[in-house]
Amino acid sequence: MFPNDLCCYWLLISLCFVFDVEHQDGDLEDFKRDAAALAEENNALKIKLKEAESCAELSEPTTDPEHSGRDLRAEIRKLKKAYKALSSQKESEVSALLAEKDFVWNQYKTMEKDYETLLKKKKMEAAQATEAAEKLQQKVEELQLQVVAQKKDDDVGRLQAEANDAKKKMLVLEDKLQKMHSLVSEKDDEIQKLKSGHLQASQKRKKDISGTHRRSRSEGPSVRGKSKGIPRRQMAEEDQPETSQKRQCASSLSSGLALRRCSSRMTHLKPASSSSSPAPQQVLFHSSFKVPKLKAPAPPPPPPS
C-alpha cells in the first residue's frame, strides 16, 4: 500500500469520526457512503496492482523482461493517474461537504441567535403588555372608587339639603304653633275676663233683686200696686241686657274651646322625618267658617222714678 493511500484512508476515517461526533445525520450518511465507495475503489485498485505484479512475476521467465517491465510500468502509471483523479475528486467532494456543513452550521447558529433575540423581544413585549394591563386595571378600579365616592357625596349633599328644608319647615310650623298658642292664651284670658265679668254681673243682679225685694217689702202694698202697673215690655227690656251678656259669654266659651282643641291637636302632631315629605299644615278654621255676630247689649233701663 502506498503512503498517499494511507493518508487518504486515515483522512477519510477522521472525517467520518468528526461527522459522527457532530451528529450530522444526513450529511454523515452521504459521506459514509462516499467513503465506502472510495475504499472499495482503492481495494479494487490494490487487487489489480497485486494481480499485475503476480502476472509480471509469472511471465518473467517466458517473456522479455524489458517488454514486461515497460507494460507493468505503464499499467502502474495508469493506475496512479486513475487513483489521483479519483482521490482528487473525492477530496473535492469532501471539501464541498465540509463547506456545506460549515455553512449549515453557521446558518443554524445564526437562526438560533435570531430566535433567542426574538424570544427575548417577545418576552419583553409580553411583560410590558402585562404591566400595561395591570395599570389599566388599577386605573379602572380607581375610577370605580371615585365614581362610588362621588355618588355617596351627592347622596349626602342631597340628604343634607332635604334635612335643611325639613328643619326650615319645622321652624315655620313651630312659629305657627307658637302663634296659635299665644292666640289661645289670649282667648283664654278673654274667656276668664268674660267669666269674671259675668260673675260680677250676676252677683250685682242678685244684689239688685234682693234689694228690690227688701224695698218692696218695706214699702208695702202701694209699691206693689205700682210694680203691678209696670208693663211687661219694660220688664222684658230690663231682662234683655242679662240675656245678651249670657249669649256673648256662651259664644266666647265655644270659640275658646274650639281653639283649645285645635292647639291640642297641633301639639300632638309631630313633624315627619327629614327624608319624607313635610306634613300638610293643619287649618284652624275652614273657609266656610263665619264668625257669629253678637247682638249689642241693650242700654240699661232707666231707674224707676
From TrEMBL:
Keyword list, A-Z: Coiled coil, Signal
KW Lyase (keyword) present: no
Ranges of Low complexity composition bias in the record: 249-280
Stretches for region Disordered: 187-305
Signal peptide residues on this chain, from the entry's feature table: 1-23
Coiled-coil regions, chain positions: 28-89, 119-176
Chain intervals with Basic residues compositional bias: 203-216
Protein name (record): Uncharacterized protein
Organism name: Aegilops tauschii subsp. strangulata
